[in-house]
Input
Amino acid sequence: MSKSRITQDVRHWTREQIGLPSGARVAVAMSGGVDSSVVAALLVEAGYDVIGLTARLYDTEATEVPRAGSCCAPEDARDAKGVAAQLGFRHYVLDERQSFREEVIGPFIESWRTGQTPNPCVACNRSLKFDRLLKRALSLGAEVLATGHYAQLDADDGGRPRLRRGMDRGKDQAYFLYPLPAVQARLLRFPLGGLSKTDVREHAERLGLDVAQKAESMDICFVGAKKPADWMAAQGQVPGGELISLDGTRLGRHDNLAKFTVGQRRGLGLPGGSSVRYVVDKKADGTVIVGDRDALKVSTLDLQGYNPVTGAMPKVGERFGLQVRHRGKAIMAEVEAVSDEVLTIRPLDPLMGAARGQAGVLFQDDRVIGGGTIEHVTRASEA
Output
């Protein structure tokens, strides 16, 4: 196939993803990485009037060594601006440092401090990308906002948003996107949902992007090169406490609650012959409870702030796939109770080590039904 035919086919494919005629104004949320840069380049190639938006979220301290592939750091804004200049479209930087501190970093610190295991990427998507960036895009005359997320978004036969897993399951980000409101979903586009990371790198090379070989972005962008526990300790707000067994036996002390997460079995400082090797729970006073692997088995969990992506709350008795970690496998679960924005879910397959603060997301095949934050976990031994 000739180069011109390939380009023509790609342009047609891109227009199908966006659903707007060539010439329409489309904003792109640009992190400075290869994914969002490829989105912008594909849109330019397809004839769209592109504008780039980058949120400045935090400052890198003078003594901090940026982690390779960190996301949304000041140097990433420079990369995004460079791509915009290379492709010839306008680029805007939004100063969201205060909002990011208040709505993402602050709750992240508080969650760790009180014994939870937070996911800041969910909060960032909800408050910044699906809210402020979209509003700014519309104010600049854009009809939609495109991002570099690896997820698929369209509408079902009833016109309701249909958020599905990305084709590249190794890069799939649908788990993080459950806060997506139906009204905003109609104004968002995820062009990379049907592509693999290899496809994206190949497009970056084909289009001659300077960021084609830039390293992957990492979770918890704002901690820099530090381990999250060390970063938390530097904030001066994380408690120490006791390590105890399920029967209350004191096993030792620790100096940093953020060093522990539910399901962890390494680095506990316990005797090598001990059978109590897993973190079973954490408390706001700094107490870490440990037990054997069977103690991790979950009987039920409550999802707080449940967002029904499909527009309808699940009904008692309905069954879905339940995923509680980004890289975790969805297991079959049943809705046991529904009240306001809280769902009580009972795993039907073994679920080991769900933690308060994590996201619990319901799937039907590859479609996101909805999700919320795990507020309470009942272990099988307590049921």
About this structure: The chain has eight helices and 17 strands. Confidence is low (pLDDT under 50) at residues 62-69. Residues 239-293 form one domain. The chain has three domains: 3-223, 239-293, 297-379.
